[in-house]
Amino acid sequence: MNPAQSPDPDAPRDLVGIGIGPANLSLAALADPLGGLDTVFYDQRPTFGWHPGLLIDGATLQVPFLADLVSLTDPTSPWTFLNYLRSRERLFPFYFAERFHIQRAEYDAYCRWVCDNLPGLHFGHQVDAVRWNPERDLFEVDFTQLDTDGEAEALGRTHTRNVVLGIGTEPYVPDPLKPLVEAPGVPVLHAADYLDHRAALLAAEHVTVVGIGQSGAEIFLDLLRNKPAGREKLHWLGRTEAFTPMEYSKLGLEQFTPDHTRYFHALPEPTRDRIVDGQWQLHKGIDAATIAAVHDELYRRTLHGGWPDAVLTPGVRVRTAGRVATTKIELHLEHGRQDSRSRLTTDAVVLATGYRERPLDRILAGLDPYMRRDNQERPRIDEDHRLVLDPSVTGTVYVQNAETHTHGVGAPDLGLAPWRSALILNSLTGGEAYALPARTAFTTFGLTQRRHVPPPREAPALTPLVDDRR
Predict the structure, then answer these.
(1) Domains (ranges, CATH) in the chain?
(2) pLDDT tens-digit map of 51-110
(3) Model confidence at 1: pLDDT above 50
(4) Is the pLDDT reported for residue 344 higher than 60?
(5) Nearest CA-CA partner of 404 in 227, 226, 264
(6) Which of 27, 70, 116, 243 has a CA 20 to 30 Å removed from the CA of 434?
(7) d(CA 81, CA 76)
(8) Rounded average pLDDT over 394-419
(9) Do the Cβ atoms of 430 and 457 come closer than 8 Å?
(10) Kindly report the CA angle at 290 between 443 and 24, in degrees rounded to 5?
(11) Cα(392)–Cα(10) distance, integer angstroms
């Protein structure tokens, strides 16, 4: 029997999850102790991996360890980070290490531990289409089972009452550099692939890092630390006008709370778009400790006289780019405030240009006739993270980490994932599978503070919930 199929192939699932990143993994972990829920999660990758190309030694999460998959909703869950440490007999070493922010590699290992022990997760399964079957009042989810080489091995179909999308983000490459990234043999790569090419980059005579956010800073620092003093030959540039620290004040961080999410969702669409554009420093700045580490390393290299051969230039955009001969890359740069232009010749380019939400249209093409869209033709998503569909569709499609336009910059935040998962589970079960706080911030966003009241929902066809944690 295909392990991704129910024992009865005609029996509908309660929920099919598409994608197994931190968002859907959080949902799967919080759904695990709830009896009566038949769930399955698919991911086309062979195994779990959380930004593997950026697991640079020493790089840390930008959120505390409590922002694991479950703790901020259910700290008693068996899937907490602390329980992971306990299972590895590492709880005392962690206690004495006094680390509030853990390394990225440790967070990745924790998520892998959850994947290894949590049932209902199926890697190597690529979801090809989602359709609504009005005759059965169910969604049809078509998938391809892949072999270890990523080749199609078998086709399958699952019927489900509900779907949750957690397909995450994809690397963003600016248009001027797309031809270089796509050309074979040209040493231009996205930061997502950094570790795979680190040895070649360290061997290159001159390396340029484009993008002055957190990943750009970590990559520049890693290259700097491993280049000989006086022969660094590094250039770090980006469009932002300064090497700006990330907003990390206590009240500033309250914009990553459910209270702010509710406030944001209730605003008019044009207002929401303006707010998102102005909140870049909440997630695109550089951690203050990383900025300090870069400066410390540059300063250390001046102790015996001279300056490191490293250029740091903010406020610069790449207009065009091309190859010089066969091994060099030429970047045509423009400085906005100076209104000046120049050319930079380099041997390799790392694009620390961030990520963008994966568009939902491809995987939801079969639901297009039922979808409601906003003025920018983006899917409308309600407060409970549900796609707004035609009323004839009695099932629900939930959305995770693809709703920045409706829920704000907190959509991809790891700390909000457990709260969003609990919202989805409460909506799915028609009850209060998880009790959620009425208030989460000292700040009152707006003249009145909205409290979340779940909409009335007809009791779903589920087995009564059994909470065996108590």
Answers:
(1) 15-168+358-429 (3.50.50.60), 171-246+284-355 (3.50.50.60)
(2) 999 999 999 999 999 999 999 999 999 999 999 999 999 999 999 999 999 999 999 999
(3) no
(4) yes
(5) 264
(6) 116
(7) 11
(8) 94
(9) yes
(10) 60
(11) 22
408 conformational bin, left if phi > 0, alpha if psi -120 to 50, beta if neither: left
In residues, how long is the chain?
470
**Phi, psi (5° rounding) for residue 299?**
-65, -40
